[in-house]
Each structure stands twice: as C-alpha cells, then as structure tokens.
C-alpha cells in the first residue's frame, strides 16, 4: 500500500466519530501540521486517482 | 578537581524544620525531630567514629564504635540509633568512650588481614581510618586465634570482587541491597562467628544480584571492591558528569588517575539518583575505550568499496559538497538529518540548526520519533506541554502507583529502586502489561492488580478505567470544574456502554472485575501516580493512549502536586532534551510549530536565514521518500537506524537507495554498512554539554578525558554547515546553551554557570521559576485549562491470522541498552550474550519447542532465528524478545504500522509465527 494511503486512513479512523465536516477538518488539519509537502502532494494524487475513501477524500479537498 | 569525598553524616536526614536543639561537645546544633545523635553531631562538625553506619542507610547499631555519653542517661548509647531530644547534652569524647572504642577496634583487627599497604582499598578504607581515629596501638588478643583470613574471594562478577576475608560483617552491603536497591539479593548467612555475607547459596554472578554497585558503595573495607581499583589503584581526581544510558540521567563522579578512568561512583548530590546507580551507569563504561572505536574520519565512493581514512578537512568537504550536489540535482528537500537522543542538547541544537539554516529545509527528526513522539503529542494536546509532570522524588509521596507499558526494574532501574522503596512502605501498585514484569511480584513488592492485557488494547483498557471513574462517582469534581475543559463531552463518551470493563473484556482479555477494582484503587488514592513507557507509545494508538492517561489523571485530580502526575519513562538519556531542542520536523525549539510566523521570525532574525514554514519529513517518511527517489542524502547522528528501526528490509532498501549517507558514531554500526562517509564521534566521557532526563532535569555532562578524535561533535556539525555556506561558529558549548536560552522560553534561565551553581535545573527555568520547576501544572496547566480529549479505541490493522497466530512484543533487559552498541562491548554480556524469544509453555509445547531450542520467528515482512526460553511471564499467544544484538535482528520482523498521529512505529504488536529451526547438520558450525 502507498505509505500516504495507509497513513491517512490511520488518521481518518481516529476522527471517524466526528460529524462529517468536522472529521474532514480534523484530518486535513492534522495532515497540514505534520506532513511534508511532498507527502501532501502524494495524497492529492491519490485523491485525483479516486483511491481515497470518503473521509480522506474530503480532507484532501481541504488541502488544495 | 581533586578526589571528591562527600561527607557522610552516618544516618539519613529527616524531613521537617530544625526544631530540636542539642549540644555536642559544647557546640549547639538544631536539627529536625527524629534525627540521630550521630547525624546531629556531624552537622555540628563533630564526626563520631563509626563502621556500620552510613547516611544512605537506616541505623543498624551493630558495630558499637559510635557510642557516646548523654547527660542524664545511663550507659553509652549508640549515637546512630539514638534520636535527639531537645536540650540533650552529648559528649563524644571521654577516656571511657576512648577505651570502649579501642576495645571494639581491637576485636575487629584481630580478625582482619594486616595487609593495608598492599590492599586495594588502602587510603579509602573506613576500618583503616577508624583504627587511626580511635588511636589503636595494640591488639591484645593477638592474631593467632580462630579467624576468617583464609576465606575465599568470589571473583565471578565482571566488575567487582567479594573478598570475604576482609569482611567485618557490618551488614552495610546487605542493607544497601535491601534499602537502596530493593533487590534483597544479599544476606548474612549463619550465626555468631560463622556469620558471613552471602548472595544466596551461589556466586555473585549466578545470584539475584543485579550489580547495581550499592553494596560496593556501602562497603567500608575492601571486601566488595571494584576490579578496576584492584587493577589500577586508587583514583586521584574527580569529574562530576552525567550517565549516557537511560532517561533517568544519573549523576556520577568519574574518578580518574590522570586521564584514565578508574571508576564511576554515583553522586550523592545528583538530583535524579541521589547516590544510587545501576549496572550500566556504574560499571559498563568500557565501551568508551574499546578497540572497536573508530577514531579517524573515513570515506568511500560506494558502500561496496573499502573505507579510506581521510583528514577531517577532506571528510567535511566530502559531506558538504555531496549534500549540496544532491540539492542541486534533486532540490533542497532531498537531504535531511536524524539527531540523537544520546547526544547532548548542544549537539542536537546544532544539528537541527544545520538542517534548518544550512540545508534550508525542515527534514530533521530524532530517534524520539520511534519511542516517545506520542508523549510529545499527547501531553501537548491535553496539558499543553510535551513533558512529564513530576520529578522522580515525587514517587515517594504516591499512594497508588500505576505502571503501564513500562518495565522500570530493567529499563529505568535507579528510578525503580525509588519506586520499590515507596512500595515497601505500603503504596499500592497496579501493573498494566501483557508480560508479568518483575514488579508484579518480587521481594517485598506485589502488585495489587496486574491487568495482563492483550497487546494492542491499551486504549480499551484506559477507557474502561475512566469509565469506572466516571460512572461510579469517583471523579474529582472540584479539580475538573476549576482546572479543565471539555469534560462534559468526554464524560458522555467515556460513560458509553462500549467503554465499560464488561464490554472491553473480550477485547483486552482482562476480567472486568479486575479493571473495576484497579480503577477504584487508583481513583480513591489520596495521591495516584501514573508511570508509563514504550508499551504505551509504540502502538498504532500511542498518542491516543497518552491522552487517555492524561484524561484519567485529570478526572481523578491527580495532576499538579507531589505524589501524582503522568510520567513518561524515557528510553534514552536525552530523549526529553532532543525533543526540547527542536528536533522534530514540524517544530522549532520549545515545541513551537514551524508555521508560527512570530516564532519562525525570531529564528530567522537570529540566524539570518529564511526558514520554511512547512513541516519536513519524519524518519519513516524519509525512508519512503528515499525509495520513491525524492530523498537522496542523510546525516545520521549517533543512531543505528539499520538495527533499531522497524521493518529493516525497508530501512536498508531506503539507505541503499541514497547517494550520500553520513554516519557519525563511535563504532561502525549496522547503519554504517550503508554509509559513504563515517565521522567518528566522541563518547560521553569526552563531551562537554548537557543532558535533560525524563523529569526535565538538565544536568551537566563534563569532559572526563580529551576527545579521542580531536574534535567535539558540535564542532564537526558546525564545520559541515560552514562548508555548505552557512557559517556556524562557537568557541565553547556554553555559547550554544546561551543561544538555546535566548531562543527557547522554557530554557530562558539556563546557562552553564547556573547549572554549575545549582547542580541541575528542571525546566521550565525562567524569570518566574529561576531555579526550575520540579512539578508542572501546579496552579494551572501550561495551556491554561487541561483538555479532555475523546479517545475512541481503534484496533490496530496488525492482526493475527492462521499463518501468523502469535503476537510479538519487544522490550529491553537490565544489562543491555538499546541496540547494544555500548553494552555489548562491556562485561555486561556476561548476563545477556544473545536475545532470547520468551514464549509460554503452551505455545512452546504446541510447536514442539524446548527451552534453549533455536527457533524461527517469522512475520509477514521477514524472519529471523533466535533461541527460545520458555516462560509463563507471557500469556498464551504472546511472545517477547529484545533487540540488543544485531545478529538477531528482531526488527527484521516488525512492520510498517505506526501511531496515527506521530508515525511512531508499532513495535509492540507484530503478528508472528514461531517454529523450530531446522537442525544444523553435523559438522557445520
């Protein structure tokens, strides 16, 4: 599995209890604070390829 | 300085105000109630002769040398066992007392070898001193009677001898083992004339002795003597410094002859250890002068080429031009560095500065990534500061101690001795650990509860504990109302039925009744303290678990005073410091995010350089980026990532993919096999700087001997930065600390001068706390109000299967340290020559494995071979090993799973299978 896919899924699982919008904000904020830009670019590429589950995809949209 | 001999007051100090005034030989002195006459006299400047007394031990009253006369009292009481009373008038000298003392000494000397001039303790022998003090001139009994002069010497221990012929049976060693160390390995065997010190019915090496050295320290003669003193003679000067092993950070007196280190003696004034030590710090320093050390820089074009020794100038030029070349070809972000928690704060500071200012990126990380990064995240979120809350002394006031995912007697032995002392005094113990660690049941210590959970279910357990607190009315409501926020939302979550002990029992394997009883015990204690280790952090929910512990402590009001708190037991000596120094890729020093424009601006102004506002790569991300080709150069400072990091095939593939790997270390370690430049490092005995231990205590590290490589490590790093075009120059490490203090609010009051004056300082140290902060969050949390954070349990993705039905968890052992690079090069191999796989008798039987058999340990990422030891310490289905020996390569089998928040590897949960290794054919080695 692509590292960023595993990592973002791990993060998303932790915020799955939140309402959709809040969860996407939380995942995006975490990625923004802790991920190197090239990792974020990989994440966006995964989103573009449609490889993300709904919550990571919503978070990725907030990082554009 | 010349040899430092600390004063010995004979008996321990008593707490409280000096309200009792006595007169000693006409000299008035005021002392706290309960102080002995001996100690009061010493404080008045009158040293009463003694042999069985020393101030690290409670009075024993056996030698009868310390007799005194007290007005209004009959006879000659022993001053060590007699407490002071107000108005007491004491005489320590009289013809009668002198006769008594000489008589006692005559008896001792009549059965003692008269070999003072050739004795290794000559000049450092209290028996010799006392003979002089009492004016012994004859021994009327002669020397021909029954005696112990032919008693054997036990030389089995690698570090000290036990010469029974010199023993005066004062019991100081036995009491030191009992009271200071808490192992109770020694005893006085037999009675009367046959009495003798014995480590049980065996030799010292084969006994339960843990070689902490407390007995050697306490011995008043040459009976228990360091082999190094026997071989080299008495030291003549002292340098006070700090141990470079675990996160306890013990202070030591390095005792030398010239520049030759004779022995390390624990420093009584050391705040962390107060005169105690463990086998590593006390004795295992021989690696510093081991012939394996590399002392000259080396380079090679390819990792398949032989090394070539070069000058420092060539080595530094090779590094600088190599890194710049990579950046020219692949971009500024194509290089980075890993700093070390074994290095000083000053060294770590210059590494992160080199990365941010000279490399021009934030690709700096530290080995804390793979141990306590979740502590930094979790405690910052909840309390507002990435650090433990207490000083070590605090445990002496704890009423209930919860140890979670830590094995202090092996990993943090000197702190464990403090803890065991408190447990012997009656504090209750809760252990949460898959493995039955020694603390669960050992002499005079027994856990009230051992919650033997399935690895990977920590968060379920901490939630269940909190569930009981909330639903049974055990919340400290005043504390929560006055000092915390987010409680209502958290309480509603934690009270949910999914968090009840009954509901999580099927997940954790821990009976609900035990969880309920443990929660009640912790919550109802006047002071409840939590101590945790890597068994908390090295999980896919490591950060969540840290926040769960913080929630639990806040809910029960166990933060902000002595005896309570949430306390990470840090693995390496300077984990706290390396994190404080801005070694994480998202944080500038002082745990301030790189995106903070104000803070970043301060550094940009001071360093005259632009700093990127984006986080850099963490260690695992560096490996991923190396494999995808965007990361090509790495400076590895004092770490052995090719042994210590998980999924080693992945690590070595990443290292192999890089164009320039620079390793700075004492030895050609596993990582150096993939390096193109090797820069020889300095041992802690050659360093000048500071370490910060797990209680935030900043201690001085002082050079005991000149750097064997000719350069300090901070100098080398500064020269690389300078060669890359960013001038970095310091003339002394104190200048680096001055820069740290100027740029880091929690270190504002720290300087070498202040440390030399105060001995040590616990940060935060600033205008409002000029001498430091032993206990944090006293009146309010660093973030204002403590924040309750929802901690839903999410199972790890690492699952057992039919193919890999067992769970492997890893840990460490007392005599070895981390990857073993240091301890494997010392006498400590006598105790642990190889890593062993512990497995339950049931699991062994099912696989036809006998104790001592070679077995294959396999996971979905790799396999290794090691020897099995069958033990019911582990529950059925869980196996355990250590990672001290590269030949075992335990991390060959650990996986890529990591903590969701910090990427800290999940070392503690790996699905594995164990099988008998194929027998080695006859005739094959």
TrEMBL record, chain A:
It comes from the Bacteria. This is Formate dehydrogenase subunit delta.
TrEMBL record, chain B:
Residues 236-292 form the 4Fe-4S Mo/W bis-MGD-type domain. InterPro entries: 2Fe-2S_ferredoxin-like_sf, 2Fe-2S_ferredoxin-type, 4Fe4S_Fe-S-bd, 4Fe4S_Fe_S_CS, Asp_de-COase-like_dom_sf, Formate_Dh-H_N, Formate_DH_asu, MoPterin_dinucl-bd_dom. Residues 158-189, 200-229 form the 4Fe-4S ferredoxin-type domain. Pfam families: Fer2_4, Fer4_7, Molybdop_Fe4S4, Molybdopterin, Molydop_binding, NADH-G_4Fe-4S_3. PROSITE patterns: 2FE2S_FER_2, 4FE4S_FER_1, 4FE4S_FER_2, 4FE4S_HC3, 4FE4S_MOW_BIS_MGD, MOLYBDOPTERIN_PROK_3. The keyword Iron-sulfur applies. Signal peptide: none annotated. Keywords: 2Fe-2S, 4Fe-4S, Iron, Iron-sulfur, Metal-binding, Oxidoreductase, Repeat. Residues 96-135 form the 4Fe-4S His(Cys)3-ligated-type domain. Residues 18-96 form the 2Fe-2S ferredoxin-type domain. CDD domains: fer2 (cd00207), MopB_CT_Fdh-Nap-like (cd00508), MopB_Formate-Dh-H (cd02753). In the C-terminal section; belongs to the prokaryotic molybdopterin-containing oxidoreductase family. This is Formate dehydrogenase subunit alpha. It comes from Cryptosporangium japonicum.
């Amino acid at each position: 599995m692509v590292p960023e896919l595993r990592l973002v899924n791990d993060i998303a699982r932790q915020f799955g209890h939140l309402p959709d919008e809040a969860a996407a904000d939380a995942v995006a904020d975490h990625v923004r604070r802790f991920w190197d830009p090239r990792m974020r670019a990989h994440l966006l590429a995964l989103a573009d390829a449609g490889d993300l589950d709904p919550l990571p995809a919503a978070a990725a949209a907030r990082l554009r | 300085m010349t040899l430092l001999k600390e004063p010995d007051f004979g008996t321990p100090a008593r707490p409280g105000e000096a309200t009792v005034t006595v007169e000693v030989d006409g000299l008035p002195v005021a002392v706290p109630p309960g102080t002995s006459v001996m100690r009061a006299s010493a404080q008045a400047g009158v040293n009463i002769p003694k042999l069985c007394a020393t101030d690290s031990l409670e009075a024993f009253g056996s030698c009868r040398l310390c007799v005194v006369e007290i007005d209004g009292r009959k006879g000659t009481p022993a001053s060590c066992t007699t407490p002071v009373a107000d108005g007491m008038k004491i005489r320590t000298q009289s013809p009668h007392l002198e006769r008594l003392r000489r008589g006692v000494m005559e008896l001792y000397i009549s059965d003692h070898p008269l070999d003072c001039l050739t004795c290794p303790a000559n000049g450092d022998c209290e028996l010799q001193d006392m003979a002089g003090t009492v004016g012994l001139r004859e021994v009327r009994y002669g020397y021909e009677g029954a005696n112990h002069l032919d008693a054997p010497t036990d030389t089995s221990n690698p570090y000290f001898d036990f010469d029974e012929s010199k023993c005066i049976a004062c019991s100081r060693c036995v009491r030191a083992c009992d009271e200071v160390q808490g192992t109770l390995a020694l005893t006085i065997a037999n009675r009367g004339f046959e009495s003798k010190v014995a480590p049980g019915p065996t030799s010292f090496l084969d006994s339960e002795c843990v070689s902490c050295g407390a007995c050697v320290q306490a011995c008043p003669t040459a009976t228990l003597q360091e082999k190094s003193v026997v071989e080299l003679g008495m030291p003549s000067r002292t340098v006070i410094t700090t141990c470079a092993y675990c996160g306890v950070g013990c202070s030591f007196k390095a005792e030398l002859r010239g520049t030759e280190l004779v022995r390390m003696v624990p420093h009584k004034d050391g705040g962390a250890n107060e005169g105690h030590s463990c086998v590593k710090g006390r004795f295992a320093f021989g690696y510093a002068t081991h012939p394996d050390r590399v002392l000259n820089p080396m380079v090679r074009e390819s990792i398949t080429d032989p090394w070539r020794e070069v000058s420092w100038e060539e080595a530094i030029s090779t590094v600088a031009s190599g890194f710049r070349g990579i950046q020219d070809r692949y971009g500024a972000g194509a290089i980075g560095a890993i700093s070390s928690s074994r290095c000083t704060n000053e060294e770590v500071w210059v590494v992160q500065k080199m990365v941010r200012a000279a490399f021009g990126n934030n690709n700096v990380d530290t080995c804390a990534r793979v141990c306590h990064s979740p502590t930094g995240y979790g405690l910052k979120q909840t309390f507002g500061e990435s650090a433990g809350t207490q000083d070590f002394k605090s445990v002496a006031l704890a009423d209930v101690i919860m140890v979670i995912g830590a094995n202090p007697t092996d990993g943090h032995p000197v702190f464990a001795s403090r803890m065991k002392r408190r447990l012997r005094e009656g504090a209750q113990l809760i252990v949460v650990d898959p493995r039955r660690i020694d603390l669960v049941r050992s002499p005079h210590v027994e856990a009230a509860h051992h919650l033997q959970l399935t690895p990977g279910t920590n968060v379920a357990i901490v939630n269940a504990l909190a569930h009981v607190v909330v639903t049974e009315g055990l919340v400290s409501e005043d504390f929560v109302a006055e000092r915390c926020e987010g409680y209502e939302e958290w309480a509603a979550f934690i009270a949910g039925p999914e968090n009840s002990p009954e509901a999580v029992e099927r997940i954790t394997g821990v009976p609900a009744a035990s969880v309920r009883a443990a929660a009640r015990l912790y919550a109802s204690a006047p002071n409840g303290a939590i101590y945790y280790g890597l068994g908390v952090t090295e999980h896919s929910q490591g950060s969540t678990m840290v926040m769960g512990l913080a929630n639990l402590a806040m809910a029960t009001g166990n933060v902000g005073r002595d005896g309570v708190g949430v306390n990470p037991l840090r693995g390496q000596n300077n984990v706290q410091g390396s994190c404080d120094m801005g070694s994480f890729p998202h944080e500038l020093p002082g745990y301030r995010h790189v995106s903070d424009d104000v803070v970043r601006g301060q550094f940009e102004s001071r360093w005259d350089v632009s700093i990127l506002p984006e986080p850099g790569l963490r260690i695992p991300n560096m490996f991923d980026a190396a494999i995808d080709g965007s990361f090509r150069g790495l400076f590895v400072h004092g770490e052995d990532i090719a042994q210590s990091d998980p999924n080693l095939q992945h690590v070595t593939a990443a290292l192999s993919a890089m164009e320039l790997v620079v390793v700075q270390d004492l030895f050609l370690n596993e990582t150096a096999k993939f390096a193109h430049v090797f820069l020889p490092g300095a041992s802690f005995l050659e360093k000048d700087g500071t370490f910060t231990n797990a209680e935030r205590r900043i201690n001085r590290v002082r050079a005991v001997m000149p750097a064997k490589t000719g350069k300090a490590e901070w100098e080398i790093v500064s020269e690389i930065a300078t060669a890359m075009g960013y001038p970095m120059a310091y003339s002394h490490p104190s200048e680096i600390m001055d820069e740290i203090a100027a740029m880091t609010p929690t270190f504002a009051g720290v300087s070498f001068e202040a440390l030399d004056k105060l001995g040590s300082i616990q940060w935060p140290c600033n205008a409002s706390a000029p001498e430091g902060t032993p206990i944090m969050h006293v009146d309010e949390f660093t973030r204002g109000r403590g924040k309750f954070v929802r901690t839903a349990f999410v199972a790890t993705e690492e699952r057992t299967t039919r193919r890999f039905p067992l769970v492997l968890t890893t840990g460490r052992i007392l005599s070895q340290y981390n990857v073993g690079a240091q301890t494997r090069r010392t006498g400590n191999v006598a105790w642990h020559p190889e890593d062993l796989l512990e497995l339950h008798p049931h699991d062994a039987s099912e696989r036809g494995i006998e104790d001592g058999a070679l077995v294959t340990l396999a996971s979905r990422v790799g396999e290794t071979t090691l020897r099995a030891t069958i033990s019911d310490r582990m529950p059925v289905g869980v196996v355990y090993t250590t990672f001290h020996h590269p030949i075992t390569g335990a991390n060959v089998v650990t996986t890529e799973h990591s903590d969701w928040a910090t990427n800290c590897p999940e070392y503690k949960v790996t699905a594995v299978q164990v099988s008998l290794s194929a027998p080695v054919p006859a005739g094959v080695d």
